[in-house]
């Protein structure tokens, strides 16, 4: 099972955090910091797996991560998941984001938190992998956007917006 | 067209985020956030109804603020309101807020559940999907209670859309994980299994995840999934990759589903059906073959996906552990990966090999990679990989390579990352103990460990080295010499001072003959470290000093001077002060004899599971490599529906023994009218602190040293599978006067005993130790009683685990009830498979009538009065025999007490004679027994007379006791 999915940048600023196991808000922030600390000090070209920090449950859990330009994508999983499988899943996630945002960059994640959550929830649900087929995911997201558009078109009133 | 166009974001949100990003300081950021929170709060509280768009915008702002690490304590109600909107956008943002910021407020949960219920019933697949996601993401017990009944219906309904089915399967899985008690098994289970045949691969993947988890707990219910999973897997593996359209990932057909199916199959033993089994083997071979084919793409994603399937296939092969051919191929494949340029593959190969090392078919094959693994330890740049290398070395270690592996680990320890030092220390300590052929090597290794990484040597480790030195007299002299030398170093670790202090206090006399380590030099050496040590260590050293007073009377005054100094007698620490005062006083007033008794060498420690191993298990948690064996076992037993504990006992199980636990042992049978025995107090004493170890110091000549198996092995060594009972009565006699010891030992197996008896009940702990590094399989000990014996002795026990890991010890408890007096002993038969051969061992179990003795104290007059009452010739049994052991008064006394009767002093007019009295307790009667032993030193003969109210009892007791002198 996936315990948590974290995205943060090279300076440790969180860009997405999704926990599938209950942790208090404080602990969540501590886990993000601890994970950043563990992951960021690793060289490039070392392996993509390491034992989880104490807060997230110690050595029973693994951190599986990839580093893309300015962002770290970290999945914290227990022993029931395939390491390479999760690595692929991260890749699918990033490729999907790239498709949805056209050359995704950090700013897209900052300004569209809700969209990123939506895309993620098409792939992972309650800590389990829901869908790995990128076309299927993109189709779902497209359908949602159409729905959204049609609603916006009818209801949104263009007025002062603060 | 991009799925999200960048222009349509919410402008207010964008402005807010930009503001935050432009903040120059943390303070400015907090200020801006507080301003925004106040704004949102007032908007939410305001009279004007907010439109959906604004609500969405504010909720997004809150999410952003939350992500930055600020607590959000409002907005939940607004989010809940959004749930009941009919518009997708609003509903969706409401669900998003709730699954990120769940609040266990019960009132809210009720409202949320209500909204979810409506959405589930809406038949709108988008809304149903949102609701299912929310349930899965929150996964609380309240939600499980509300929806666990509903979701299976959605899952198996014929008209449910694929995407909803997918979500429903995972949602159910989540609820089953959090609250299995709310998820009812039922008709739906068989229909879920058939989802493995579904057209839509996404549905199959989700269903496989669900079934895997359910099958772990309900294997029978989901047994049919095995053949379906195999055929699905086979279709994927053998298909041309284009058949699976979108589920082909970088030229690998449905890798994710393949991995999941292979995981599911790991819940079950190899398929019984030959056809299914054949098909699966074919799949696994195909997967292994594909690994050798040239890659279809240079992209790392291609090899990743391919190898994800490959590693899972290897896990399945290891799990089945039944096809030597596949195991060897798996091992070779992993061997290739050990040298692969991809770090990830090296890491995973090391990890998989750890599990492979415990398979009896491939242990040797794994060992051939030792040089590569050691090299990895030395050269890998990545600590994660090095750690796996340590794990693998630990797993592949056996008697043949222990010295090399321990040496390499010690080497590595000098430069190892701080984070893994303690673990390496524990591992080295365990291996050194487990595979020590020569205990001097063990002592050297541990002292090295303390020298290299003293700070990481936990108490368990140095406790253990002391236990071992105390229990093995062949290493004591060496240990004393070695610690003495190690202590010469100007700066030595405090743990070394502790070990050194303890060992010299016990065995310093063994090296005192050498003028270089004379008593005074030893003392000065230890005392030179004293002031640098912490309080607990100083306390230990004070005990060493008083032990020195006993060992070396010649330095008594020196030590007394030290104890008397103000820094000791007036020490601010009460523990130290008290020790100094008491030890000083003890050394002043006690006679040499009393000192010798009080400060006697420590008795051997009972054999238990190594505390270090326990610590390592605790440290690493249950889900790690070191425990993989157990996990595997657990999984297996789950699959078989849990192992039933039924009494497998040859004797009739007439009445269940009332002694459910140790304390119950004494409490239950007090219904008899006899006065409670005078020694009831000892009932509460730890079962391991038995009478034998109490007797030991009294009889320094007796050799009942449980921890030195060599003694026992010299008596009974038998390699061949034998149906004969080993050294029949010899063994019985060894245990007549004691309750603990090694019953049997050969090259493979050691059997130790501990037992405790009270009135007519007893409990015996049998410890089976696997001395090899290979698992024993089908390990079945059976207790056999002849028909005659069955009617007088009731034995109850539970079966032990059929596999005994290399180096492991398993314990079996036998509850004993004596119905009436008996002559023979039960037989313990042990059968198991070791390597390829079948082993069969039988030994007599030393349960003898005298174990049910309760001592009775009485005065001279009473004794002779009763003696006369029992003058009927059938009641008396007499035996005159030659002494087989030196005639030592103290040993004789100890043996009579060990036999179970009271030893009555000043009863017999001739002080050289021994008399004893006691009552044999059986369930049916109690039999009073008197005994008299008359030694004749000149003739080296004894005359033993037994008088009891029952002829058979007199006869049996006389037989048993005669063999003891």
TrEMBL record, chain A:
Keywords from the UniProt entry: Cytoplasmic vesicle, Golgi apparatus, Membrane, Protein transport, Transport
Homology family: Belongs to the adaptor complexes small subunit family.
GO cellular component labels: AP-3 adaptor complex; cytoplasmic vesicle membrane; Golgi apparatus
Keyword Iron-sulfur: no
Gene source species: Gopherus agassizii (Agassiz's desert tortoise)
Pfam families assigned: Clat_adaptor_s
GO biological process: Golgi to vacuole transport; intracellular protein transport
Record localization: Cytoplasmic vesicle membrane; Golgi apparatus
InterPro entries attached to this UniProt entry: AP_complex_ssu (IPR016635), AP_mu_sigma_su (IPR022775), APS3 (IPR027155), Clathrin_sm-chain_CS (IPR000804), Longin-like_dom_sf (IPR011012)
Protein name: AP complex subunit sigma
Domain of life: Eukaryota
Residue intervals of the AP complex mu/sigma subunit domain: 1-147
Membrane topology category: Peripheral membrane protein
Functional description taken from the UniProt entry: Part of the AP-3 complex, an adaptor-related complex which is not clathrin-associated. The complex is associated with the Golgi region as well as more peripheral structures. It facilitates the budding of vesicles from the Golgi membrane and may be directly involved in trafficking to lysosomes. In concert with the BLOC-1 complex, AP-3 is required to target cargos into vesicles assembled at cell bodies for delivery into neurites and nerve terminals.
Signal peptide stretch: none
Keyword Membrane among UniProt keywords: yes
Automatic annotation (TrEMBL), chain B:
Region (Disordered): 623-680
InterPro entries with a match to the protein in the record: Adaptor_Complx_Large_Subunit, AP2_complex_asu, ARM-like, ARM-type_fold, Clathrin/coatomer_adapt-like_N, Clathrin_a-adaptin_app_sub_C, Clathrin_a/b/g-adaptin_app_Ig, Clathrin_app_Ig-like_sf
Cellular component terms per the entry's GO annotation: AP-2 adaptor complex
Membrane topology: Peripheral membrane protein
Annotated binding of a 1,2-diacyl-sn-glycero-3-phospho-(1D-myo-inositol-3,4,5-trisphosphate), by residue: 11-12, 43, 53, 57-61
Molecular function via GO: clathrin adaptor activity
Keyword check for Membrane: yes
Domain Clathrin adaptor alpha/beta/gamma-adaptin appendage Ig-like subdomain: 733-846
Quaternary context: Adaptor protein complex 2 (AP-2) is a heterotetramer composed of two large adaptins (alpha-type subunit AP2A1 or AP2A2 and beta-type subunit AP2B1), a medium adaptin (mu-type subunit AP2M1) and a small adaptin (sigma-type subunit AP2S1).
PANTHER family according to UniProt: ADAPTIN, ALPHA/GAMMA/EPSILON
Name of the protein in its database record: AP-2 complex subunit alpha
Protein species of origin: Gopherus agassizii (Agassiz's desert tortoise)
């Amino acid at each position: 099972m996936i315990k948590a999915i974290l995205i943060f940048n090279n300076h440790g600023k969180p860009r997405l955090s999704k926990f599938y196991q209950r942790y208090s808000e404080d602990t969540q922030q501590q886990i993000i910091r601890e994970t950043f600390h563990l992951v960021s000090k690793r060289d490039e070209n070392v392996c993509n797996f390491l034992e989880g920090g104490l807060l997230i449950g110690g050595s029973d859990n693994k951190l599986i991560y990839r580093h893309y330009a300015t962002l770290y994508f970290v999945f914290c999983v227990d022993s029931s998941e395939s390491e390479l499988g999760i690595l692929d899943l991260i890749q699918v996630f990033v490729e999907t984001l790239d498709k949805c945002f056209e050359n995704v960059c950090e700013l897209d994640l900052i300004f569209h938190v809700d969209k990123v959550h939506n895309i993620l929830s098409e792939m992972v649900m309650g800590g389990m992998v829901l869908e790995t087929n990128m076309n299927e995911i993109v189709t779902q997201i497209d359908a949602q956007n159409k729905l959204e558009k049609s609603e916006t078109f009818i209801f949104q009133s263009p007025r002062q917006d603060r | 067209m991009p799925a999200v166009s960048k222009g349509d974001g919410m402008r207010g949100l964008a402005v807010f985020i930009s503001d935050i990003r432009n903040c120059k300081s943390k303070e400015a950021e907090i200020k801006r956030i507080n301003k925004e929170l106040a704004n949102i709060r007032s908007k939410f509280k305001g009279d004007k109804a907010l439109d959906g768009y604004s609500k969405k915008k504010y909720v997004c702002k809150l999410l952003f603020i939350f992500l930055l690490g600020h607590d959000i304590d409002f907005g939940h109600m607004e989010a809940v309101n959004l749930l009941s909107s009919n518009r997708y956008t609003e509903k969706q943002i409401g669900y998003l807020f709730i699954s990120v910021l769940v609040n266990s407020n019960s009132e809210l949960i009720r409202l949320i559940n209500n909204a979810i219920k409506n959405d589930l019933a809406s038949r709108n697949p988008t809304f149903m999907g949102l609701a299912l996601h929310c349930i899965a993401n929150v996964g609380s017990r309240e939600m499980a209670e509300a929806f666990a009944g509903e979701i299976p219906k959605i899952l198996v309904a014929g008209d449910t859309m694929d995407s909803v089915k997918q979500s429903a399967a995972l949602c159910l899985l989540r609820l089953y994980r959090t609250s299995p008690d709310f998820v009812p098994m039922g008709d739906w289970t068989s229909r879920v299994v058939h989802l493995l045949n579904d057209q839509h691969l996404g549905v199959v993947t989700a269903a496989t995840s669900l079934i895997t988890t359910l099958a772990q707990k309900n294997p029978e219910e989901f047994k049919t999934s095995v053949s379906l999973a195999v055929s699905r897997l086979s279709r994927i593996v053998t298909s041309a990759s284009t058949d699976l359209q979108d589920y082909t990932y970088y030229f690998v057909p449905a890798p994710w589903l393949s991995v999941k199916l292979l995981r599911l199959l790991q819940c079950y033993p190899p398929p019984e059906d030959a056809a299914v089994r054949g098909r699966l083997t074919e799949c696994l071979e195909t997967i292994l073959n594909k690994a050798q084919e040239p890659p279809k793409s240079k992209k790392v994603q291609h090899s990743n996906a391919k190898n994800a399937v490959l590693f899972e296939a290897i896990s399945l092969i290891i799990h089945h552990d039944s096809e030597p051919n596949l195991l060897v191929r798996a091992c070779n494949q992993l061997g290739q990966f050990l040298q692969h340029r991809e770090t990830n593959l090296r890491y995973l190969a090391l990890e998989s090999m750890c599990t492979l090392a415990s398979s009896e078919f491939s242990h040797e094959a794994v060992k051939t990679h030792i040089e590569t693994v050691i090299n990895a330890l030395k050269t890998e740049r990545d600590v994660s990989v090095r750690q796996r290398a340590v794990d693998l070395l630990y797993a592949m270690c056996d008697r043949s390579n222990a010295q090399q592996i321990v040496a390499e680990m010690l080497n590595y320890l000098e430069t190892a990352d701080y984070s893994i030092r303690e673990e390496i220390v524990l591992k080295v300590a365990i291996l050194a103990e487990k595979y020590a052929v020569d205990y001097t090597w063990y002592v050297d290794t541990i002292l090295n460990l303390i020298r290299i990484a003293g700070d990481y040597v936990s108490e368990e480790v140095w406790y253990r080295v002391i236990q071992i030195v105390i229990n093995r007299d062949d290493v004591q002299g060496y240990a004393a010499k070695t610690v003495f030398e190690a202590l010469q170093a100007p700066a030595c670790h405090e743990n070394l001072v502790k070990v050194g202090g303890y060992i010299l206090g016990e065995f310093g006399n063994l090296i005192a003959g050498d003028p270089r380590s004379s008593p005074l030099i030893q003392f000065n050496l230890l005392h030179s470290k004293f002031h640098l040590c912490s309080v607990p260590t100083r306390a230990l050293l004070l005990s060493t000093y008083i032990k020195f007073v006993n060992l070396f009377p010649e330095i008594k005054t020196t030590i007394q001077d030290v104890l008397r100094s103000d820094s000791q007698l007036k020490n601010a620490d009460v523990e130290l002060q008290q020790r100094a005062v008491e030890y000083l006083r003890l050394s002043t007033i006690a006679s040499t004899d009393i000192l010798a008794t009080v400060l006697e060498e420590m008795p051997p420690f009972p054999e238990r599971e190594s505390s270090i191993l326990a610590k390592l298990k605790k440290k690493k948690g249950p889900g790690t490599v070191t425990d993989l064996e157990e996990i595997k076992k657990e999984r297996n037993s789950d699959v078989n529906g849990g192992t039933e504990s039924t009494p497998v006992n040859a004797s009739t199980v007439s009445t269940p023994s009332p002694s459910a636990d140790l304390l119950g042992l004494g409490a239950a049978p007090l219904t008899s009218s006899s006065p409670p025995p005078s020694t009831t107090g000892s009932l509460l004493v730890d079962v391991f602190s038995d009478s034998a170890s109490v007797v030991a110091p009294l009889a320094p000549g007796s050799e009942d040293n449980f921890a030195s198996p060599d003694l026992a092995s010299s008596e009974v060594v038998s390699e061949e599978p034998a149906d004969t009972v080993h050294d029949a009565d010899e063994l019985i006699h060894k245990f007549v006067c004691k309750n603990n010891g090694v019953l049997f030992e050969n090259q493979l197996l050691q059997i130790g005993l501990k037992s405790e008896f009270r009135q007519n009940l007893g409990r015996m702990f049998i410890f089976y130790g696997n001395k090899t590094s290979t698992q024993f399989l089908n390990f079945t000990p059976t207790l056999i009683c002849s028909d005659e014996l069955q009617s007088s002795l009731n034995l109850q026990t539970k079966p032990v685990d059929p596999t005994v890991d290399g180096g492991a010890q398993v314990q079996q408890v036998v509850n004993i009830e004596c119905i009436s007096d008996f002559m023979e002993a039960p037989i313990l038969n042990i059968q198991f498979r070791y390597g390829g051969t079948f082993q069969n061992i039988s030994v007599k179990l030393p349960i003898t009538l005298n174990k049910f003795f309760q001592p009775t104290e009485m005065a001279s007059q009473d004794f002779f009065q009763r003696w006369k009452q029992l003058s009927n010739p059938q009641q008396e049994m007499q035996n005159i025999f030659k002494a087989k052991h030196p005639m030592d008064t103290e040993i004789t006394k100890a043996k009579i007490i060990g036999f179970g009767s009271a030893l009555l002093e000043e009863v017999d007019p001739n002080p050289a004679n021994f008399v004893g009295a006691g009552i044999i307790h059986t369930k049916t009667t109690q039999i009073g027994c008197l005994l008299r032993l008359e030694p004749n030193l000149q003739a080296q003969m004894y005359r033993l007379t037994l008088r009891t109210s029952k002829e058979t009892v007199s006869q049996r007791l006389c037989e048993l006791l005669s063999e003891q002198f």
